[in-house]
């Protein structure tokens, strides 16, 4: 094996090579930016700035779905970022695995809570 481990002959190891995660971060960011723009337009063109006006907006099924998809994008965006932090800075595998599992449990719980908030009766 050559001693210069740079350039096209470098040895690449590990489970994550970067492009998929980089792309996921960009796609989820675009989803969140789009939702922010929809909220901004709704705010700027709203005629009713009361609780009832905002509740009416969030009562529409399409808006609930858009909100939930944005939350899912946020949670996946957070997962990719936190997983990379754990992989980069936590070297003992058992501690890293425990932190990754705790992160997944927390994000799934947040997704469940978001669904409950959006679709409670």
Summed up, what is this model?
The chain has 121 residues and is mainly α.
Could you give the topology of this structure?
Blueprint (H helix, E strand, L loop, with lengths): L18 H26 L6 H9 L1 H29 L3 H27 L2
Helix pairs in contact: 1-3, 3-4
Written as H for each helix and E for each strand, in order along the chain, the element string is HHHH
Instruction: Tell me the strand percentage band.
Output: under 5%
Instruction: Tell me roughly what share of residues is in helical segments.
Output: over 70%
Q: Count the E strands.
A: 0
Structural class by SSE content: mainly alpha
Biggest sheet, in brief? none
Shape verdict = elongated
- The number of helical segments is 4
Explain the overall architecture.
The protein is an all-alpha fold and 121 residues long. It is built from four helices and no strands. The N and C termini lie far apart (64 Å).
Features:
4 helices, elongated, mainly alpha, 121 residues, cell membrane
